[in-house]
Every structure is written in C-alpha cells, then in structure tokens.
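Appendix B, Record 12. Input sequence as logged:
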Amino acid sequence: MSSDTALLSHRMLVPRTPIIVRPMGRWPELGLSELWSFRELFWFLVWRDLKVRYRQTLLGVLWVVLQPLMTMAVFAVVLGKLVGVPTDGIPYPLFAYTGLLPWMFFSSAVTTGAVCLVGNANLITKVYFPRILLPAAAVTARLVDFLVGSLGLVALMIYYRVSPAPGLLFIPVAVLIELILAVGIAAIFANVHVRYRDIGFVVPVALQLGMFVTPVVYRWTLVPARWRWVIMANPMTGIVEMYRSALIGYALPWKPFAVSVVVALVMIALALFESRRAEGILEDIV
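Logged structural output:
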C-alpha cells in the first residue's frame, strides 16, 4: 500500500466491515452532506497536489508568473504592435494579461482535473471517498497558481499607472464562478476519461482552440452583432470580461456573466450527479 493510501485510510477511519458501493439509481442525490464530512480529506488532497506540482522544480512558483508574462509578450508584439487590436486606451500588455490570467487558470485546472481519476487509481480502488473530491482538489490547487500569477498583474498596473476600477469587488465573484465552472467541467471529463482514455489528448487541444473563441486577447464587443450570441454562449466569455472590466474600468458585462453563472451551476450539478451515478462501477474500470 502506498503512503498516500495508508494516510487516507488512517485519516478517514475506514470501518472494518466491508462497504459495498453501488450506483444510487437513475437520479442519485447530490450528496452535499457527505462532501462536507470529507472536507479535511479535500484539503489534504489540495496540499498533496501542491507539493507534487512544485517538487524538484528549479524556479518553483516563479514559473506561474513567467508563463502568462511570456505569453502576454508574444501577443503584445503580434496583436498589439503588428495588428493593432483596439483596447480603448488600455495598454495592450495589461489588456492581454487580464484575459490570459483567468484563462490560464481555467485551462490548467480543467486539463489537470480531467485526468486525475486515472492518475489516482490506487486510491480509488482501495479507499472510499466521494470521487469528485479528486478533480475538485486538482482545480483548487491551480487557484494558488492564479493568485501567485496575479502578482504580475499588480506589477503591470503599477508600471502603466492604471488604478483599479470601482468594480474591483466583483473579482472574487468572477473567480468563484470560474472555480465552480472548472470543477464541474473537469469532473465530467474525469469520469469520461476513465472509460475513454482519448479524453486525455482531446481536452488540451480543445482548450488551446477555446482560447481563440474566448475574448482573451480581444474584446467581445469586437465580434459582429449578429454573431455575438455565439461568443456569449461560451461561459468563459462572461468570466474573462468581468475580470477585465472590474480591473481596468470597462462597462461590466452583465449578460455574458449571467450566462457564465447559469452554465457553471448546471455543470457542477451534472458533475455531482455523474460522480454519484458512477460510484460502484468506477472502481472496476479505472
């Protein structure tokens, strides 16, 4: 038995009598009370993911700041200088960074969470706990990257002498909705990945393409009016635009953000239902 499995067994006080986990019917309960009872395990999984992520790295958390800064520099040259994407007076490096930061959190969180069930097969087959805790912990661990990466944003705002907009208070709301959305999508992909391992290859490619149908390096208002409903249907549109607008003073995008909230709640509900439905069969195929 691995050290992780032994520690989980000790923490959770697994009963000596065997537990048989079966699917809970066509419409299983969400199991929110059970999730709350496993909250200590959740934080242990988050801490474990953070230790594994930064173990034996030369620059450690500095990579979290360097990655969006380097990506921002490329877009600043190509789209800011050569193409001249309009930003309504906001310096393009700052404009791009405010979009890249939430998008990179979402992308890395979903990519990591989508493969976490297969990656933790030794735990799943030996110890019982709500399986959605694994993708939820993987996504939450990436939130630390997001917070560290925000230091680069602070530095850019100081450099360009841009003061935070009055809508700054909406940023925690946008981050919370993005966290819920990422957990929901990652958990759904994780359950599918157990059955179809192709998901591990499809998700990163889909996310790379998804950045260009999300207003990360351009404003959503640049999209022609007759096609704007398409980009509004993307739940990350409202989140990225809310984050950017709350920081640098654009009009707050209430309609796209409302779509983001609805889709995030639907995704997390579907993820909870799917995770409960898959209990009892997941252990046999992982």
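Residues 30-285 form one domain.
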